[in-house]
Amino acid sequence: MDAQKIARDILAEYPRQYRKKPVVVTAMRYDGTRASATRIVAWAGGASGMIDEVTHAGHGYRLSIATLEGEMQARPGDYLIRGLAGEFYPCKPNIFEASYERVEQSPGMTDRLMDGTQAR
In degrees, to the nearest 5, what angle opens at C-alpha 65 toward C-alphas 61 and 68? Predict the structure, then answer.
């Protein structure tokens, strides 16, 4: 065995640190109101139809989202993110705010983000 192969094998056996690649995602924050749910369903439903249910859950409306990991519930305050492959998933506000920062948008960008024509 050469020294480089031995070094690679040794490094593969121990935890390593990784930095998340910088990516830009499209997201909307859900505030628990019917109006917010309707806007999110219109945004995501036109692109993929993956948000399939809005129900009254006592403290606002709950969104049921079919994700790559199975069905998930979005609660008031959660962000709904469109991922790189066009998939949708909810994210708790503390995780979202620790992971993402707002990107300045050029004129007309909001319309393209709403209708899903912005490149992912």
Answer: 160
Fill in the DSSP letter of residue 109: H
Report pLDDT for 116. 54
Report residue 81: phi and psi, to 5°: -110, 135
Sign, Cα dihedral of 24, 46, 74, 67: negative
Measure CA of the first residue to CA of the last residue in the chain; give whole Å. 44
Residue 49: what pLDDT?
Answer: 47
HEC sequence for 54-102: EEECCCCEEEEEEECCEEEEECCCCEEEECCCCCEEEECHHHHHHHCCC
Select from 70, 49, 51 the least CA-distant residue to 62.
51
Report pTM.
Answer: 0.67
Cα–Cα distance measured from residue 83 to residue 87, given in angstroms and rounded to the nearest whole number: 5
Instruction: Please provide residue 5's backbone torsions phi and psi, each rounded to the nearest 5 degrees.
Output: -65, -40
Going from the C-alpha of 94 to that of each of 25, 31, 79, 81, the distances in angstroms are 16, 15, 10, 14
